[in-house]
Amino acid sequence: MVKKAKYIWMDGELVDWDKANIHVLTHTLHYGLGVFEGIRCYRCVDGRSAIFRLKDHIDRLFNSAHAMLIKIPFTKEQIIDAIFETLKANGQKEAYIRPIVFIGEGVMGVHPQDNPVRVSIITWQWGAYLGEEGLNNGIRVKTSSFTRHHVNVMMTKTKTCGNYVNSILAKIEAINAGYDEAIMLDTEGYVCEATGENIFIVRNGKLKTPPLLSILEGITRDSIITLAKDLGYEVIEERFTRDELYIADEAFFCGTAAEVTPIREVDNRQIGIEPPGTITKMMQRLYFDIVHGKEERYLHWLDFVK
Questions:
Q1: 140-169 pLDDT per residue, tens
Q2: 228 near 235, Cβ under 8 Å?
Q3: pLDDT per residue over 168-190, tens digit each?
Q4: What is the pLDDT confidence band of residue 1, given thresholds at 50, 70 and 90?
Q5: Catalytic member of 142, 159, 171, 208
Q6: Residue 44: how many CA atoms within 13 Å on its side-chain side?
Q7: Which of 51, 116, 146, 187 has the maximal Cβ count within 10 Å?
Q8: 117 strand-pairing partners
Q9: Which residues does 91 contact at the CB level (< 8 Å), separation at least 6?
Q10: Three-state SS for 254?
Q11: Is 190 in contact with 244 (CB distance < 8 Å)?
Q12: What distance in Å separates the CA atoms of residue 268 and residue 106, rounded to the nearest whole number?
């Protein structure tokens, strides 16, 4: 269950959590046209709170809206200010942050016409998305029977609400089969991404991740690529097959919610000799050091709450 906070920001003002309601004829509820972001705020070692790569997330929110022909009725600066306002009003030192842009009530039918564009920002406390046990020791993963979106079927570079029905089906299938998460293949059968995370494998000391073809441009993915290169590792962005994943030395998911979560098993095949692997654990440790303000070199990725 989501732990309630005091307020939710809606269309320019703070509203009591229980009063932040929408009409049943809200267009996005019926047809799925809306965009959102997932952002995290962490409590740093010096006691301050900082949001990780906030501006990059807001840029992606606006890019998603642009691609989906939605005009957000606020500027980027106003959304950023509203996020800080909501965190402070809720007294939250750490939180998951969910800005969502959606089409309100008005006409029905597939075309939204001139229905109002609405914006909300929700903040709540959220721990390890795939569980503390998974974060520490790795998770079990199943290759889904559901294929990831083709690039000319959905806008795969956007965090569009309706896109995630595909993810929901894959996640339910994996959980019902006794796994923690699903791996999804693209329309040509190559490893694509998970239901809400990007994926990396490690082979012979090199990191490999699917290219930005049909996958989301993950901000955590970009961070991991930067960190790995800074550490001197070669990072290869190219397609790989399911059997290459099986024989990888290491594998891990990354994302704002999942952070850096090791994969210990895929389709009943153990990944590596003793998962989680050395590079995975190192990347995870460095990532958490950065978001908690322990690495001066990467402080530019943090926006501190004032």
A1: 999 999 999 999 999 999 999 999 999 999
A2: yes
A3: 999 999 999 999 999 999 999 99
A4: confident
A5: 159
A6: 18
A7: 51
A8: 103
A9: 6
A10: strand
A11: no
A12: 49
